[in-house]
Amino acid sequence: MKKPPNNETCSQAVSESELVRLLTQMLRDEGYRVRLEVSNMGQSVDLVATQGRWVTAIEAKLSDWRRALVQCRTHESVADYVCVAIGSLSVPSGLFKAAHELGYGVLHFKRTEAKFKWEVRPRLNSKLWKPQRRYWSRALRRVPYAY
Hints:
Trna Endonuclease, Chain: A, domain 1; six-stranded mixed sheet; 5 helices; globular; disordered N terminus
């Protein structure tokens, strides 16, 4: 008989840095190369995951998803895909609605399972600003990969 997960451990709140660490590991397992805290137009992208020529910008938040959406708007100029990773107990309906409207992806950290799940897959970003992307890509090459 399979032993159930230790819900006492899995359901505990995680910090934002732990959320980023767990997300980094998941993305690396999926074949992405991950960089953390990448500068972009006076802001910082929490995670930049690259796979081939595709760039995904991810903002990680424990609960303040509205702030993540504001930050994500800046990332539209450089990323092929834009996502919010949320560590709240559930995904707020407002975040679902906004993500669908904006084409953003939503990754939810399922505390009971201690893993991330794609709740909304991102659409290819049509607002990419090619001159900014080229400039940003050169700077991105100087940022070391995570872990």
